[in-house]
Write a structure and sequence with these properties.
mainly alpha, 3 helices, 63% helix
Length: 90
C-alpha cells in the first residue's frame, strides 16, 4: 500500500497599509480587548465579512433585476433598494 499525504499550504501576502488615527486606535482596542489576536486577523475578518456582504448584495440585485424585468413592479431597483435601506435603518 502507498499512502500519500497532501498538505494544503496557504501563502499569505504581506501588505503595508496606513490607517487614520481613529481607525488605528479602534484596531488596537479590539486586539487589547482580546477580540482578535492581531490587527492582521481583524483586518482579514473584516474583509471576509465585506465579501459575504457583497455576495448578499449581488443576490439582491439579481432578484431586483428579475422582478423589474418581469413587469411585477414599475419601481426601479434603485427605488426598491432605497425603500429597503429606509426600512432597515428605521
Amino acid at each position: 500500500m502507498v499512502y500519500i499525504c497532501i498538505k494544503e499550504i496557504f501563502i499569505m501576502a504581506r501588505q503595508s497599509i496606513s490607517f487614520t488615527k481613529p481607525n488605528d486606535d479602534w484596531l488596537k482596542a479590539q486586539v487589547e480587548n482580546e477580540e482578535y489576536s492581531s490587527k492582521s486577523e481583524l483586518i482579514n475578518d473584516l474583509i471576509r465579512q465585506a465579501r459575504k456582504q457583497q455576495v448578499q448584495i449581488d443576490w439582491i440585485r439579481v432578484k431586483l433585476d428579475r422582478s423589474e424585468n418581469s413587469g411585477f413592479t414599475k419601481e426601479t431597483k434603485e427605488q426598491i433598494l432605497k425603500q429597503s435601506k429606509s426600512l432597515l435603518n428605521g
